[in-house]
Amino acid sequence: MTRALLLILMVMAGPALALKDPTRPAGTSAPVDAKPTRTSLSLTSIIQAGERRRAVINGQVVREGDPVAGTQVLSIDSDRVILRQGGKRRVLRWQGPPDIKTTP
C-alpha cells in the first residue's frame, strides 16, 4: 500500500516539476545571461581628402554613418574612428604608426 501511494505521488509530481513561474507574464521567457558579442574590427587606414574622410575597417571603405560589421560609424578623426555598437560607443585607435593619406 505504501509503495502504491508513493508511486502515485511520484507520477503526479512529474508534471508539477515542469511548471513555469505562475507570476511571469504570458509570452515572456526567463532572463538569459547573453552578452552582446564584440565583433573583431581592424582599422587599417584613414583617408582624408579635403573635408571628406573615409576609413578602411575590416577591408571595407566606410564613411560617417555607414554600417560595418554590426556597428555604425559615428565619426572619423585623423587618429581614430568612433563607432556605435548596441547603444554603446566603441573607439578604434591605431595599433601602430598611422597610415594617414591626405590629398589637397
Structure description:
The chain contains one helix and eight strands, in the order H-E-E-E-E-E-E-E-E. The protein is of the alpha+beta class and 104 residues long. The chain has a domain of 51 residues. The strands form two sheets. A four-stranded mixed β-sheet has the order 3-2-1-8, with no helix packed on it. A four-stranded antiparallel β-sheet has the order 4-5-6-7, with no helix packed on it. Strand 5 and strand 6 form a beta hairpin. The longest helix is centred in the first third of the chain and has 16 residues. It is rod-shaped. This is Type II secretion system protein GspB C-terminal domain-containing protein. Keywords: Signal. It holds the Pfam family T2SSB.
Topology of helices and strands:
Elements: H1 2-17, E1 43-49, E2 52-57, E3 60-62, E4 67-68, E5 71-76, E6 80-85, E7 88-93, E8 100-103
Parallel strand pairs: 1-8
Antiparallel strand pairs: 1-2, 2-3, 4-5, 5-6, 6-7
Question: Any idea what the shape is?
Answer: rod-shaped
Task: Give the number of DSSP strands.
Answer: 8
Arrangement of strands in the largest sheet: 3-2-1-8
Report the sheet-strand fraction: 35-45%
Q: Biggest sheet, open or closed, and with what strands and sense?
A: 4 strands, mixed
Unreliable spans are none
> Distance N terminus to C terminus?
97 Å
Structural class assignment? alpha+beta
Q: What oligomeric state do the depicted chains represent?
A: single chain
Mean pLDDT value = 77
The topology string of helices and strands comes to: HEEEEEEEE
Rounded radius of gyration (Å): 27 Å
Helix content: 10-25%
Total helices: the number is 1
